[in-house]
Write a structure and sequence with these properties.
2 copies of one chain form a homodimer. Chain A is an alpha/beta fold. The first copy, chain A, has 19 helices and 7 strands. A 7-stranded mixed beta sheet of chain A has the order 1-2-7-6-3-4-5, with helices on both faces. The termini of chain A are far apart.
């Protein structure tokens, strides 16, 4: 632990980001704490109230627009590499939240990044994207008040990437992303295009824009904020704002949910038995014996089962507070909590899958995929 | 000064010290000498006969297609930064030559490169490009048997650049181009797209393609040949061939014509008085006094006035050989030769400008510029 404390935090959007101490991000990267803005939020979302969204850059700009009902945008997206999981679910819900608060919403299918980073050909990613967009619609995204697009097909984003290329030295790219394939640098420029497209004339010009992301994506924000300033004269860009949510722990006790560890996560489209099994095998904050747990209580702070409830599945704040205290007091044991959680998750998943099926055709239409 | 052996080559009388440098390119870069293929060329062009085109890569592939009348393509282009000069004239004539020998011809307006390298905004480069394309048409390019396009507007080229990004490491880019802005690396990928687009299905699939360029452009060829091999499985690319012409000396005696030295070059659209003045002030291979020159003869090998005649303005091989020998023998003095050259150049330029005017509308139509 003492050595871990000395380890420098690396926020790498294409690698593994494990944050040991979120507080240090405030100092090291200039991320601002979100907590201080919470009381001013007209209608704070669940992730905000619970501290899952812990940091931001320049969110005041967006907050002012929300308060004074002026125009603003929300922009984020998904890398179409597979089915929705709890990470992409979080981003989707954040976008939908801001859309419901009045933002024009942009949802980007980052197929260029999926290609450059994960070698997924465009013929494949467009199929995956149809499912992802159906998920987004099933969760409540309103396509009439937003824009869903694929990077590869959105010429405005790619044109911005070409323009931005001149503003970025190799030294900057290396400082932000390390030594990478040129394609990955290109996809970073495209991503900057994604973030600033909402401010083009075609979308009613410059406006505060919030980009809700996992903190591992901060590199893209830093690059884009720099580019927004370099190209301000031409486009009149307002520097984009961001909010950062925490990275979820793996169900198996690993520091992060990750594809290469199937027991660490589940998608919304796995078989119920598979999801149930993963929860039942999950690492918890429980004690070695029932006796000890009754006596000492559990440790929800390190428990991934508690975490998925708190992040996603227990919507009522009073309910989650009760779970927390019942665990701490030793009243609620891990087996019982796992059973409760499995039921809630499977109910959600079943209902979601039913809804989602109805949106497949709409998703195809939006993405212009046959 | 090198040897009797070289002086025997009547149509390559200028090849002295500079050829020694070019020889080094054969060893250092693996460029092949063009001379050995010359006797096999069905109808060699002026630049070939005179050794201006001195090297190639894999040109045999193209030669075989020419001999057996199978399909092949020629691809090159222009960076739209200003009016046609003698360098862009050379490339244009090379493309037209191959088109007349049966190639499908591709002429690329490298506006992305002009932006990334020379900071020329697209609104400006499209205007410049209209003039450039009118020049090309006036020189004899047949748009019915070719494709003229802007990089920024040609999606197929940009799509290839995105695909290729994954195949290029930063180390490769640095080895080929040095430390550059990311935009320049991007424009190199786009250029690889230009070179390989003629082999896409839309253009009748894989075929030998010759890229006639100045030897300073070889880096693009090396990168593209590498990419053609990396993406062979997907596209069935045939590795592109190239021919290399020598770089012209500056009229003012500098080693290269360059924009920053206005007396080193002229465009085809300068005022006749300006062109005449530049030729009259030009450095030559003459001797300090008339007496010495009558006695020792001039040195056409180092003379840029002789060079522009030999490269561009004296079309008959016998005529240029006569000039060479008259200079060497002391019969033709620099003043007289400058006067002759000025007349030939100004006649060409006047006639060209008249023709070009008629092609402006066609150029606008091809480039879809209003």
């Amino acid at each position: 632990m003492s050595t871990a404390k000395k380890r420098k935090t690396v926020l790498d959007p294409w690698g593994t980001t494990i944050v040991e101490d979120y507080n240090r991000l405030y100092e090291e990267f200039g991320i601002q704490p979100f907590k201080s803005l919470l009381s001013e939020m007209p209608n704070p979302g669940m992730y905000m109230r619970r501290g899952v969204i812990f940091g931001h850059r320049d969110f005041e700009l967006v907050l002012n627009s929300m308060k004074s009902r002026e125009k603003f945008a929300v922009m984020s997206g998904i890398k179409p590499t597979g089915e929705f999981h709890l990470g992409t679910l979080m981003t989707a819900r954040e976008i939908i939240y801001f859309q419901q608060q009045g933002a024009t919403a942009f949802y980007c299918i980052a197929d260029i990044e999926a290609y450059e980073d994960n070698k997924i050909p465009f013929e494949k990613s467009e199929k995956i994207a149809v499912g992802n967009v159906a998920d987004l619609l099933a969760l409540g995204f309103d396509p009439e008040r937003g824009c869903i697009y694929r990077q590869y097909k959105e010429q405005r984003v790619r044109d911005l990437a070409v323009l931005f290329g001149r503003g970025v030295t190799l030294a900057t790219m290396k400082a932000i992303y390390g030594e990478r394939n040129i394609g990955l640098y290109l996809s970073a420029l495209v991503q900057a295009g994604d973030i600033l497209m909402p401010q083009l004339k075609d979308f009613d010009g410059p406006k505060p824009t919030v980009v809700p992301v996992g903190v591992d994506q901060d590199a893209h924000l830093r690059l884009t904020r720099d580019l927004a300033s370099k190209f301000r004269r031409k486009f009149n860009f307002i520097s984009p704002s961001s909010t950062y949510h925490k990275i979820m722990k793996g169900l198996d006790g690993s520091p992060k949910m990750a594809k290469r560890s199937p027991m660490s996560y589940f998608t919304l489209h796995e078989k119920p038995e598979s999801i149930a099994k993963k929860i039942s095998y999950a690492f918890t904050g429980g004690r070695p014996t029932v006796e000890e747990q009754r006596k000492l209580g559990g440790v929800p702070e390190i428990c991934p089962v508690y975490e998925i409830c708190m992040y996603h599945f227990v919507e009522d704040d009073d309910d989650i507070v009760r779970v927390y205290h019942d665990c701490k007091s030793g009243k609620l044991l891990c087996g019982e909590h796992k059973a409760q959680t499995t039921e809630i998750v499977l109910n959600f998943v079943r209902e979601h899958q039913l809804k989602r099926r109805k949106f497949i055709d709409k998703a195809r239409e939006i993405l212009q995929v046959n």
